[in-house]
Amino acid sequence: MVYAANGDTGFSIVFEVVDDTSNPNTYKVTVATTTFGPFPMSTAPAAIGTMPSATVAWTVLWGHKAGAQWHVSSTNEVTPPGLEEHRACGGVGRCDVFSGVCTCPYGAEGPSCGKLFTTDETINDALPVSVLTADSLQYAGDILQMRAKRSRSSDFNFISVSEAANAPLMVLSGDGHLRSRSIQGDMGATVLSGGLFVGGGGGTILSGGLNVVEGHVSAAHTTFNEDVLSAHSHEATFQNALLKLSADRAASDAFRIIDVVVDRSGAATRLMQLLGNGQLEVVSGPLVASSAEGAWVTGTGGLHVTAGGATLQAGTTIESTDATASALSVGMAHPTFTGTGINVVATQAAQATFKFAEVTASGTAQAVLTHHGDGRLQVHRGGIETTGGLTVTTGGIAVAAGLSEFDSGIDVTGGGMTVSSGGLAVSTGGTVLANADLANAHVLRSSATALTAGHRVVSVESDTKATTSADHALLWAGSQDGAGVMTERLKLTAAGVLSVTGHIHLSAKRPSVVATSDVSLTGAQCGAVVAAGSAAAGAAPIVVTLPQQLGTEAAGCFVTVVVAETAREVQIRNGQTIGALYGKWPYFEGGTYKQGSIQTTGFLTSGGGTGIALGIPTGADSFLATVTLSAITGLPLGSNVWYVTEGHGPWASTAF
Question: What InterPro entries does its record include (predicted)?
Fold first, then answer.
């Protein structure tokens, strides 16, 4: 509105919009206490009531709001309207207050510059600047239609909305693209085709979520330090899923629920995939569970690693809550498997400061088995039970508490066996010792570092009662010839009878053997014995020749020579033995000369019989000639019995 008073002063005028539905709107004028109107608004200057010198012209003829008032005094607007803003010349032109004529800029025309390509006219802060109204209730046309003879192009705009600094807020370009700083709609937005493109600023959905009925959702990002896709719930008691992936297709490994790929523009390496059957596959890189709880597999299928194995750097705890299932099962399914089922490797050198494995019962209270870092296997409880025997290649076996219960025997291929304490007891099956090592002369060796009264170095005992059977031997020794024939050499029966095939070499200077029963010794036990001469009275001496191959080993052989009651001379050749004669000196050839004699110390009584004591001087070798006396009544002829005492050198014999 433009008001001109032509110099009139001293009055106050109020302009008020009466009808905002008519076109043009109507108004009334109150001068002092007198009201005029209503009048239709006009862009031409019109007189005000009875004041011909005062005129008013309206720049905008419609779009006002009923009740809007303008208070003016003289030529000044004292109080602007409370509901609408009044801007002279549409806010774009320059108003001449004296003539009431507007000078319009380019793009605006009309008395108030109201016909514009661009409308920038504000009458009231609460009223629309421009209103297009179709009064007909059956109106079916375009309330606003903009046409351009030029073909569509982004070089021009149909609508351009800007702020005071001319920064664009919304632009409808000539090619139909609508660019706006923001779009808000109570009824939502529907994009029929072409999709929705957000050039910047992203998209924010305050409520209702985002539902893609058809097509796919793709998120791409060129900023290196921001998340491409983020899902967040602000609800403190949230109980649903932040990300839910579902498919109408039944479970199958023919599709993927999640597919993680890197270097998509290059080699496109797949890192991980979650198949449609629920199978999670880490294709490249490790699967890491860094939380304190670790990784849990609660399903009945357990954990399957088909290739590459499993590397656990911070220890492994396998706990089974099933009553019958194995806590750990290692299987080699390949039919030609040649690897290692379980391989335990320690970085440090072998030593007893660590353990390869330890088996405990009842938590950590009872250790059952420990495999130490130095290779030592320690069984704390239960012992070792094996059906294939036990083979010790080196080092032997050191048993501190004895050995027992070896049903399949013990095979020691090297290192021997050492029993530190407890001894070695064989209850059934006996003991067989064999020595194929020529460098070791001992097949069986028994020694004692200390003995007390009643103790024995070697003790041979029989639990059965003593018997005179020759087949029941307490001690038996034999040798095998080149043809593999075993020949008996020595036997001690349960009746106490000792039989020897061969010779006995005794080197002790004190009595070495005490025979308490019958002993039969023949010349054949010293090899070939050649008897020259006769045992008859007056015959030549009897000569016993020992084999040359026996050498000094012939010393100490027992030779029995049967003579008549007349003393005869006995000669021993090629030996270191002593011959004893009845009152005569012995004769030696190639042997050691020592005096021998037969002492007649009188008659002895033993078990009801009588006899004569025969003795060899002290220091003589172990040769004994047994004489049978045929003239003694009560002594059977041809007897070879003798008794050994301790009183006359190494050997003293008494016939009885």
Answer: LE_dom
Over range 240-265, report the average pLDDT.
89
CA distance 106 to 3: 25
Domain end marker among 116, 146, 177: 116
Domain boundary among 58, 91, 116: 116
Categorize the per-residue pLDDT at 401 as very low, low, confident or very high, splitting at 50, 70 and 90: low
Reading the block at residue 521, the tokens are 């010794």
Number of domains in the chain: 2
Give me the numbers of helices (H) and strands (E) for the chain, helices first please. 0, 36
Give CA separation, 435 vs 423, 439, 440, 553, in Å.
21, 10, 8, 25
How many other CB atoms are found less than 10 A from the CB of residue 48?
A: 22
Which amino acid belongs to residue 591?
G
pLDDT at 471 over 50: yes
> Is 122 contained in some domain?
no
Supply the pLDDT for residue 538.
45
Distance CA 331, CA 328 (A): 10
Range of the domain at 45: 2-116
Reduced to 3 states (helix: H, G, I; strand: E, B; else coil), residue 548 is helix
CA-to-CA distance for 116 and 112, rounded, in angstroms? 10
The answer, as to whether pTM is greater than 0.70, is: no
